[in-house]
Amino acid sequence: MKYFGAGLGEMHKELGTMIRKEDRLEEARRLFSELHGALHLSEVSGGEENELDRLTGDLEDPEYAVMVTSKDETIAWALWHIARLEDLTMNLLVSGGEQVWNREWARRLGTAVADTGNAMSDDQIMELSKALRPAELLQYRSAVGRRTRQIVEGLTADDMKREVRKEDLKRIREEGGVTAQEDSVWLLDYWEKKDVTGLLLMPTTRDPMLHLNDCCKWKQQIRSKKKFYRS
Questions:
Q1: pLDDT for 118-166, tens place per residue?
Q2: Among residues 36, 35, 39, 65, which one has the least CA distance to residue 52?
Q3: Whole-angstrom distance between the N-terminal and C-terminal Cα of the chain?
Q4: N or C, which end of the chain is more exposed by having fewer CB within 10 Å?
Q5: pTM (2 decimals)?
Q6: Predicted local distance difference test score (pLDDT) of residue 65
């Protein structure tokens, strides 16, 4: 069931048809900006109030750390996960620069965890979710989103076809973006097969659509159910 992002899937498909075409680069850039803006708080794009504003606007801190069923994660984990994916792929793999996450952000967020959380157990997800400070988590993701928009503005048609460099993948491992666990380290193999366009279309846009849909579903369930798997 669709809980978030009506029409964004169609927008994403349209973006995929034009983003590799040099003569449509500016059109693709504008469409990416619109789609990306819908997946971040409106403060990132400077637009009007959007679905993510409404999702997070009245969330109480304890609601970020509720695992509704054994098949679910938490809102805090989902926001952390998509923020870390975007930070790592855009800043290390696309721009070859420095990621937003650093020791100061770790202090502000309340956790030393640096990876994307792909291989976390339920206990680890809950531990992270309870440690994260929701207001700071939202600010971290917004900082990542702003950096992404700056990077995309500077990309050329040739950049869009550029493949991921092995040395940048190595940096992700060295900086703790993935762990040695099988459910985490596979991301490096996955990203190695991508070009810049592939990174813009998946971890930066498509993946957040799926996780934010879950977050909206969980919010409804948190407020309608009396018992949860973990909280």
A1: 999 999 999 999 999 999 999 999 999 999 999 999 999 999 999 999 9
A2: 39
A3: 24
A4: N
A5: 0.97
A6: 98
C-beta atoms surrounding 189 within 10 Å: 9
Tell me: pLDDT of 1 over 90: no
> Coil, strand or helix: which one is 43?
helix
| CB 141, CB 79: distance < 8 Å | yes
Query: What CA–CA distance (Å, rounded) separates 149 from 168?
Result: 20
| Residue 206, amino acid | R
Share of the chain above pLDDT 70, in %: 100
Distances (CA, A) of 205 to 86, 105, 111, 211: 9, 23, 25, 11
* Dist. CA 99–CA 84, nearest whole Å: 9
Please check whether residue 161 is in contact with residue 197, taking contact to mean a CB–CB distance below 8 angstroms.
Answer: yes
Give CA 206 to chain center in angstroms: 9
